[in-house]
Amino acid sequence: MADQENPDAANDASAKTILASAMAQVSDSIDAHFDAVLTVPDDARARLVEAMRHAAIGGGKRLRPLLVVASCDLFHVDRQSALRIGTAIEAIHVYSLVHDDLPCMDDDDMRRGKPTVHKAFDEATAVLAGDALHALAFEILADERTHHDPFVRCELVAELARASGQSGMAGGQMMDLAAESASFDLATVTRLQQMKTGALIAFCVEAGAIMGKLSPEGRAPLRGYARDIGLAFQIADDILDVEGDEARAGKALHKDAAAGKETFVSVMGLARAREQAHALVDQAIGHLAGFGREADLLRAIARFVIERDR
Amino acid sequence: MADQENPDAANDASAKTILASAMAQVSDSIDAHFDAVLTVPDDARARLVEAMRHAAIGGGKRLRPLLVVASCDLFHVDRQSALRIGTAIEAIHVYSLVHDDLPCMDDDDMRRGKPTVHKAFDEATAVLAGDALHALAFEILADERTHHDPFVRCELVAELARASGQSGMAGGQMMDLAAESASFDLATVTRLQQMKTGALIAFCVEAGAIMGKLSPEGRAPLRGYARDIGLAFQIADDILDVEGDEARAGKALHKDAAAGKETFVSVMGLARAREQAHALVDQAIGHLAGFGREADLLRAIARFVIERDR
Fold first, then answer.
1. Coiled-coil stretches, from where to where (chains A, B) (predicted)?
2. What ipTM was assigned to the predicted interfaces of this complex?
3. A14, B120, B175, B253: least surrounded by Cβ within 10 Å?
4. Is the Cβ–Cβ distance between B38 and B81 less than 8 Å?
5. Do A56 and A38 touch, CB atoms closer than 8 A?
C-alpha cells in the first residue's frame, strides 16, 4: 500500500523482485548445467569429477552468470545460450577460487560455507580440479550449442582467454600477491582490481553484445557499465572484509588487514570507500540511459553489487 | 659411401637428417613465438610473466609442436599456422608440467635441466604461471592468424579442451595419482596413459587433419598412428625412468618405483616393454602406408619416440 504512494519505493520493490527471481532462476540453471557436464565416471577419475562438483555446484551468488543473462536479455539472445556462456564463465571463476584457496596462495579453509576443495579432498586434487574446470569453460564456449556462428564462438573464446590470463585475472592475482609486501597507491590498487575481478566481470557484460553481434562502438555504454560495477563490486568486497559477518559470507574475513594488504578501504578509509561505491553504481546506471525496461535487470544488479552482505 | 651400398642405412641417415633439421627449426620457432607473446610488463605482473618464460622458453624436446608441423605438412598447411597451433599445445603441455612438479603433486626440483618454477620462483607463482599458460593456449588458437575459417578455430579449441580436461590429460593425471595407492592391471595402465599423455599427442597429429579440413573418415590412419606412438612414447618414458641418465634427462628419474606406481615396465617387465614399444612404432608407421614422402617426418618421429635418451 505504501508502495503505491511512493513510486520510488515501488520501483525499488519491483527491482528487488526482478533481481530475486532472476537470481533464483540463474542459480538453479547453473547448478543443472554443471550437474549435466560433470558426470562422475566409474574409474579412478571419480575423485577428480567429485572435486569439480564440490567446487562448482551449490552456493555462490552466481553474479557473473546473472550479468551474462542480463546483458544477453538486452539483445534478445536465447536464454539457453546465455546460460551456457554463464556456466563457462562461472567455471573460470570457480577454478580461480579453488586455486586461490590453496595453502600456497590465500590458504583458506572455507568457501561458500563449505570446506575448500583442498580441505575436502587434498591439494593435488584441488590443483587438477581447477585445471579441469578451466578446460571445461573453453569446451563449453566452443560447442556449437553456444552460438550457431563459429565466428561468435571464437570471439567468446578469445575474450575469455584474455580476461582470465596474464593481462586479466591471473595478472591481477599476481599483483595481489605482491600487494602483501608492497605499498600500493590508489591508482595501482584500482588497476590491480580491474584485472583481478574487473576483466571477467567486463567479459560477462560484453558477452551479450558479442552474442548480439553489436558493433564495437555500440558496446561503449556496456563497457562503461561493466567498469563501474566491477570497481564498485571490489570496493564492496573490501568493505565486507572489514565489516562483514563470516557466517553470512561463508568464508574467512578480515584477512586483508592481517596480511598487510592495501585495499580500497585501507587506502581511502571506510567512509570514502562507501561513498565511492555508491557514486560508481549511479555512474554505471547512467551508462544505461539509452536502454529502456529491458535493462532493468542490469540496473538492479548494479544496486545489488554494493548492498549484498556476502 | 657405405650408405650407398646399403639403402636401409641410407634411408635411416636421411630420416635422421630430416628429423634433426625439423627439430631444430621447430624448437627455435616455438621459443620465438613464446618470446613474442610473453613480453614482461613494467609492473607487479613482471614476476608472473618471467615465471611463464622460465617454464616455456628453452629446453624440452618440443615433440608435440613437431608432430603438429609434421601432420600439417601432409595437408600443405602453411608453416606459420602450424607453429601457432604447436605453440598453443606446448603451452598446455608446459602448464601441466609446472603444476605436476608442485610439492603437492610430484614434488620435483628439476625440469628440462633447470630448477622447476616453484623452486626458481615460489609455489603461488607456479600455480598462477600454469594457469596463465593454460589461458594463453586458447587465446592463441582462437586468433584469426591461426586459421582464416572460424569453424576450424572452434574445432581446434574444442578438441584441445577435451584433450586436456577431465576426460583427457587432467583425468589421466588424477588416475596417475591414484596409481600410487592402487594396483592397476595392464589395461588400466594403458587407459591411464592414453588419457594422461595420449590424448594431447593425438590432438597434435589430428591438428593437421583439422586444418586441412579432412573428413572424419579420412582421419582414421592418423588416429591409429597417434594412438600407437602415444603408447610407445609412454612405454619409452617408463623405460627411461628405470634406465635413463638423470643429467641427460634434465629431471629426476627412478621415481615411479620409489612411489610404488604401476608402470608399463612394472607390469610387463623391461624386455617385453621394449619389444612392445618397437611393435607399436612399426604399427604406427604401418598406418601411414597410404602416404608418400610427405609423411617421412611422421615416420622419423615414430622411430625417435623410442630411441631418445631424454
1. none
2. 0.95
3. A14
4. no
5. yes
